[in-house]
Amino acid sequence: MGHPVTTNPLIIMLINMTVVFIVLIALSFLIRLIHVVDPTYKKEEPQQEASAPAPVAAAEPAPAVEEGIPQEVVAVIAAAVAAYGCGAAEIKAIRPLDRPGWKQSGRFPSKNS
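Predicted structure:
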């Protein structure tokens, strides 16, 4: 019984591809099952009606802003930091860096930091 059942390469390929896809489908179902059963998975809560935004705590220190930076830019930077998950207290200063061009700014470390 040491002889192979078939030597046809197409049948061997079809058998192997079938086994691979059955395993992939089984893994897909297992991942979906884990998402359903997972207790740490946060389910999306229904959104409440549009209400006034929560007031910002007055105890947070305002960041040091250099002259010449418009308030709109400061507001956008603060909103971006808040969207990232940090608080306004983590902004130490807002100042422009002296760099010759945008292309070079990501390639070399800053002299100011």
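Summary: The longest strand covers residues 64-65.
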